[in-house]
Specification:
The structure holds two protein chains of two kinds.
Chain A lengths: L1 H26 L5 H17 L1 H4 L6 H25 L13 H21 L4 E2 L2 E2 L3 H25 L5 H21 L9 H39 L11 H15 L5
Helix pairs in contact in A: 1-2, 4-5, 6-7, 6-8
Chain B lengths: L14 H17 L7 H29 L6 H23 L11 H35 L12
Helix pairs in contact in B: 2-3, 2-4, 3-4
The chains are: A mainly alpha, B mainly alpha.
C-alpha cells in the first residue's frame, strides 16, 4: 500500500499535471495562471524524470528512466536545429556564422548518440533493457520517415520553388530508412535484429491505434463545439457606416495598401 | 505557381501514406512478419487509451473555450463524459475480454497504467521526431536567400 501511495504521489500525480498544466498554461496569456502552470509542468516533468530514483518499486518508473536516458540526445538535436536555423538567411537577427557548423555537429552527435544507444548501450533498467526503449526507438525511426514524407509533400505542394529542399529532405528520409533497415537487420549488444523486427510491427500497431484514438476524440470535440455554436442565436445586425466612419476607413486603407502615400 | 487548390498538387497528400506503406512493404519483403501475435492487442489498447486520454485533455481545453462563450457547461460535460466512457470501455474490455491484456500485466489496472506510460513514450517519440524533421526542414529552407515577395517596379 505504501508503494502504491508513493507511486501515486511521485509519478502519477506529476504525470497528470503534465498535460493539464500545459493546457491551463496555454489557455490564458495574462495574469499569474501561465507562470504558475508552467512552473507546475516543469516541476512535474523533473519528478517524472527522476521517478526511477524516487519510486524504484513502481514498474511505471521505467517510463521516467527512459525519458531521462533520451534527454541528452534530444537536447543536442534541438540545439543543433536551433543553431542551424538561426544562422541561416532569416529576417531577424542571426547568430554568428561559426554557430552553423557547431549546430550541424550537435545534430549529428545527437542522432549518433541514439544510434550508439541502440547498438551498444541501451538504457538498462532492473538489469535488463528498459522495455519502453524497445517501443520508443522504432517509433522514433518510423515517425521520422513518416513525417519526412509529410514535409516533402508539403514543400512540393505549398512551397514555391522548393524542389531542392524537397530533394534534400528525401535524402534525409532515406538516411533514416537505411538506419531503420540496419536496426532490424543487425544485432545490438543487448537486442537482436529479430526482436527489433517484431517490435517494429508492434509499434506500427501502437502508432495506428494512437492516431485513430486521438482523431476520434478530436472529431467528437469538433462535433460538440459545432453543435453548440449552431445553437447560439444570430448576432444582432449593426447600423450602416456613417459618412465620417467611411472616410476614416478609406484613410486607413489608403495608408496601409498604397505605401502610406495618402 | 500552381495554386494550392489545383488538382495537380493534391495527389501529393497521398505521398506520406504511400511512403509509410512502401517502408512497411519493404520490411515485409526483406524480413517477413516475425512474431506479431500481440499486434491486435497493442492496437486496441493504444486506441482506447489515446481516446480516453485525449478526450480528458480536450475536456480541460474546453475551459478556455468556455471562457469566451459565457461559460456553457454542456460541452465540458459532454467531453468529460466521453473521456469517462473511454475509460470505462477500456476497463470493461480488459476485465471481461481478457484477451486484450498483454502477458506481462496481470490485472486490468496494471494494463491501464502500462498503456498510459506507453502512450507517453509514443507521444514523446513522435514529438521528438517531429521536432527533428521540422528543424531539418527549416534548416534547409533558411539556408537559401529568400526570394523577394514583390519585384521592384521599373
Amino acid at each position: 500500500m505504501e508503494d502504491f501511495l508513493q507511486a501515486a504521489l511521485l509519478f502519477w500525480l506529476p504525470l497528470i499535471c503534465l498535460p493539464f498544466g500545459t493546457v491551463l498554461a496555454l489557455s490564458r496569456k495574462e495574469g499569474r495562471r501561465p507562470v504558475i502552470s508552467w512552473s507546475v509542468v516543469f516541476l512535474a516533468f523533473i519528478m517524472i524524470l527522476f521517478s526511477w530514483v524516487t519510486v524504484p518499486a513502481s514498474d511505471s518508473s521505467a517510463g521516467g528512466h527512459l525519458l531521462l536516458s533520451i534527454i541528452g540526445p534530444t537536447i543536442l538535436m534541438g540545439l543543433g536545429c536551433f543553431m542551424i536555423i538561426f544562422t541561416g538567411k532569416i529576417p531577424v537577427r542571426r547568430l554568428p556564422e561559426p554557430a552553423r557548423p557547431v549546430g550541424l555537429l550537435s545534430l549529428i552527435l545527437g542522432v549518433s548518440w541514439l544510434v550508439m544507444m541502440h547498438f551498444s548501450s541501451p538504457p538498462i533498467w532492473r538489469h535488463q533493457v528498459n522495455p519502453y526503449w524497445l517501443v520508443w526507438w522504432p517509433t522514433f525511426l518510423l515517425s521520422v520517415i513518416l513525417l519526412s514524407s509529410f514535409v516533402i509533400g508539403a514543400l512540393l505542394m505549398v512551397g514555391e520553388n522548393r524542389r531542392k529542399e524537397a530533394s534534400l529532405m528525401v535524402v534525409f528520409g532515406l538516411l533514416f530508412l537505411g538506419l531503420l533497415l540496419a536496426v532490424i537487420n543487425m544485432d545490438g549488444t543487448f537486442t537482436t535484429a529479430e526482436e527489433m523486427r517484431s517490435h517494429l510491427w508492434l509499434v506500427s500497431a501502437d502508432i495506428l491505434g494512437t492516431v485513430i484514438g486521438t482523431l476520434i476524440a478530436v472529431v467528437i470535440v469538433a462535433t460538440v463545439v459545432t453543435k453548440y455554436e449552431k445553437s447560439l442565436p444570430e448576432p444582432n445586425t449593426v447600423l450602416e457606416l456613417t459618412a465620417e466612419e467611411k472616410e476614416l476607413l478609406l484613410t486607413h486603407l489608403g495608408n496601409n495598401l498604397e505605401g502610406g502615400n495618402k | 505557381m500552381t495554386p494550392l487548390t489545383s488538382n495537380r498538387r493534391w495527389p501529393l497528400l497521398v505521398f506520406p501514406m504511400l511512403g509509410c506503406l512502401l517502408v512497411l512493404m519493404l520490411v515485409l519483403f526483406l524480413f517477413g512478419l516475425g512474431d506479431v501475435s500481440e499486434s491486435f492487442k497493442r492496437f486496441t489498447n493504444a486506441l482506447l487509451t489515446s481516446f480516453s486520454v485525449s478526450a480528458a485533455v480536450l475536456a480541460i481545453a474546453m475551459w478556455s473555450y468556455a471562457d469566451s462563450r459565457e461559460r456553457p457547461m454542456a460541452p465540458i460535460f459532454a467531453i468529460g463524459l466521453m473521456a469517462m466512457i473511454g475509460g470505462i470501455l477500456t476497463f470493461t474490455g480488459l476485465r471481461f475480454a481478457g484477451d486484450l491484456m498483454l502477458e506481462a500485466n496481470g490485472t486490468p489496472m496494471a494494463q491501464i497504467l502500462y498503456n498510459i506510460v506507453q502512450l507517453l513514450v509514443i507521444i514523446s517519440a513522435i514529438a521528438i521526431a517531429g521536432g527533428l524533421v521540422l528543424g531539418t526542414a527549416f534548416s534547409l529552407i533558411t539556408a537559401r536567400q529568400p526570394e523577394p515577395l514583390f519585384n521592384e517596379e521599373e
